[in-house]
Amino acid sequence: MIDLSIAQTKQGLKDKKFSAVELTQAYLDRIAATDEKLHSYITVTGDLALKKAKEIDKKGDYSGLLEGIPMNLKDVVCTAGIKTTACSKILENFVPPYNAHMYDRLLAAGSILLGKTNTDEFTMGSSSENSYFGVTHNPWNLEYVSGGSSGGPAASVSADQCAFSIGTDTGGSIRQPASLCGTVGLKVTYGRVPRHGCISYASSFDTIGPFTKTVEDAALVLQAIAGRSEKDATTPDMSVPDYSGFLKEDLKGVTLGVPKEYFAEGVEKEVSDSILEAIEVMKKLGAKIIEVSLPLTKYAIPTYYILVKSEGSTNMARYDGIKYGHTTDAAKELQEIYMKSRSEGFGDEVKRTIMLGTYALSAGYYDAFYLKAAKVRALMKKEFEEVFEKCDALITPTSPTPAFKIGEKTDDPLAMYMCDVLTTPINLAGICGMSVPAGFSSKGLPIGLQIIANQFKEDNLFHVGHAFEQATEWHKKKPALI
């Protein structure tokens, strides 16, 4: 039963083929059998999950949108009474007094929390190697990374350790690990899902979205968590459409743009070949394919990292060793407490963020770096808007390479940052994107196809993604862990 999609699981519960308790226990057994190899989970909430499952079975009504569906949350989503660490020593024992608003919506929809999953510290990374608790391994080959920062959520869905997972995407942190682990990963439009209760990296970039086994499942989860929130002023007062109504099996009347800059130097041939084959599938489904150009793409990485490091350095200021979190035992004076608590509590990538961001925001360099990057961001947004006047969605690779070996890029921060070269433009523009499985490398590692649409046009993602998924078999393949 753990192989099933959310839609199939809901039907199984309604038909009494299995109970919510049996389903939850099956997932908990899977976690116990595989997580020593994967290290997807930081905290497993087995007792809480079984208690909720028993309540659902007792009620006997599985009509809720996600009623009885076991899931997990990236460990930056606040959960009242359950540790939320951001995979950092500085929050190692932090227990929030409240839930993230998005998590409350999942509970209201009937989902069951299995636990909290691994991430790069404060979501800063592209491989999950920056976690204080250790790296998450790729289910397809344990010597390779699962991607980042949402490596734990991606690996857990790929390995059937949950029915779906919730991650965050600041510059590709859902789509890139989804590509590397062979799952569906949805980056929503900025503001589509409330961020209240989610620990911030860069506040004007962060988005919350699902990892799922199918495109249909992603539509179901987004249905449950999207919409205006009185707790988040960045969520617009817009209605949430019935996303399941856009799941069509052909692409007649759809125009898809292929940006030539996304197939440039740095994108491995196996990756570009897989995406070109996917485009041929879409042609057969009735799509019109046009070439488009996004020339500002070459500035995405420097623009993105100047801005997110600046915002990140500001957000990290609250962790001072006084209010909450780790406090050093080796200091007596206030200034010493600040310095030693932060030195002991933060890892290398967070320290790099603080230094780069503080530098970019300093009085002598603000105009030269931060302000200039902000102007480029505005130009990139306009460039995407102009392209979307010609097409309904864009088709690109998600990651320039399949998964790389653990430790391969840890000593080269720039090489690690380049892993996000195809995903960061979407966050800079505040638009939406989704990665779906589209092939495998010669080493048997997954390759993801990225679909990009304009603001609040997630319906186009679901239309294109579902049609492609129904015409191919990539999403049905599973890693052999046991």
Structure in words:
The chain has 482 residues and is an alpha/beta fold. The chain has a single domain, classed as Alpha-Beta Complex (Amidase signature (AS) enzymes), CATH 3.90.1300. The chain has helices spanning 6-14, 20-38, 46-59, 101-108, 151-158, 175-181, 215-225, 269-284, 300-315, 334-345, 348-361, 367-387, 413-417, 424-429, 458-471; strands spanning 41-44, 70-74, 112-117, 137-138, 141-145, 164-169, 184-187, 207-212, 255-259, 288-292, 393-397, 432-440, 446-453. The two termini are 16 Å apart. The model has no long low-confidence stretch (mean pLDDT 97).
Sum this structure up briefly.
The chain has about 475 residues and is an alpha/beta fold. The chain has helices at about 5-15, 20-40, 45-60, 100-110, 150-160, 175-180, 215-225, 270-285, 300-315, 335-345, 350-360, 365-385, 415, 425-430, 460-470, and strands at about 40-45, 70-75, 110-115, 135-140, 140-145, 165-170, 185, 205-210, 255-260, 290, 395, 430-440, 445-455.
Topology:
Elements: H1 6-14, H2 20-38, E1 41-44, H3 46-59, E2 70-74, H4 101-108, E3 112-117, E4 137-138, E5 141-145, H5 151-158, E6 164-169, H6 175-181, E7 184-187, E8 207-212, H7 215-225, E9 255-259, H8 269-284, E10 288-292, H9 300-315, H10 334-345, H11 348-361, H12 367-387, E11 393-397, H13 413-417, H14 424-429, E12 432-440, E13 446-453, H15 458-471
Parallel strand pairs: 2-3, 2-6, 9-10, 9-11
Antiparallel strand pairs: 1-3, 4-5, 6-8, 7-8, 7-12, 11-13, 12-13
Helix pairs in contact: 2-3, 5-6, 7-15, 9-11, 9-12
